[in-house]
Amino acid sequence: MKKCLIAVALLAAPLPAMADKLEDLQKQGYVRIAIGNEPPYTAVASDGKVSGAAPDVARAVFEKLGIKDLEASIAEYGAMIPSLQAGRVDAITAGLFMKPERCNAVAYSQPILCDAEALLVPKGNPKGFKSYADIANDASARMGAPGGGTEEKLALDAGVPRDRLVVVPDPQSGLKMVQDGRIDAYSLPVLSLNDLLAKSGDANLEVFAPVEGAPVYCDGAAFNKKDTALRDAFDVELAKLKESGEFAQIVEPYGFSAAAAMSTTRDALCAAQ
Ligand code: 6CS
């Protein structure tokens, strides 16, 4: 009889909760984030200070969750999700736009940064590029884009052959490649190219935006699929920031529209495009 009672007691005992990622991060005191170093989304200064709209929003949210510091690592967009899935980072806060295939791979927060796509081209846009299809239809045209990024995928989907698509590691390299004529267009989101061109002061270049036929995308902070409790806690504090106006105070100086992010949802963005 006694054995039976012990067995029943053990079965009734609550199973140890899955290790709680939020508690782990609170104990760790910092969050390891993946970023792209593409202002105004993300930036790392020469002294190592991390800024940009995505890390600044993440910092504000994580502070509310009792986690003070961010530890950033720069990665190619196409490498960010594998890095998250392998546990090398705790979150992606980089302007990684929500798309169905990405929504299946990670747990996104609610929307944070929204933007259209753009092309950096020589002044006067001599080849008349307005869409990725225009680039596909010009057999001599070469386009640069981040590896594994949204613009690369849009160009491939529009028919730009892989051998006319150049993987560009960072915005400065893309600028130089257009300046040197090694590519005819460099594609990034509008705010990234506007920032890049303004800082370059190069009057021989211009930004064509928005790329016709390309959606307006929004990012969210991305978490490992098994960390939905952490993602949900992030969303609770993100919603409070949006409600209080603090969210707009963070993103709008960078040129982003708080209203655009607040007018849509993760579910809508993950179902679209
Ligand atoms: O989500 C992406 O793939 C794109 N996001 C940004 C902020 N820059 C380029 C990248 O391709």
TrEMBL record:
One of its GO terms (molecular function) is ectoine binding. CDD domains: PBP2_Ehub_like. Residues 1-19 form the signal peptide. InterPro entries: Ectoine_EhuB (IPR014337), Solute-binding_3/MltF_N (IPR001638). SMART domains: PBPb (SM00062). Gene3D superfamilies: Periplasmic binding protein-like II. Residues 30-258 form the Solute-binding protein family 3/N-terminal domain. NCBIfam families: ectoine_ehuB. This is Ectoine-binding protein /hydroxyectoine-binding protein. It comes from Paracoccus versutus. The lineage of its organism: Bacteria, Pseudomonadati, Pseudomonadota, Alphaproteobacteria, Rhodobacterales.
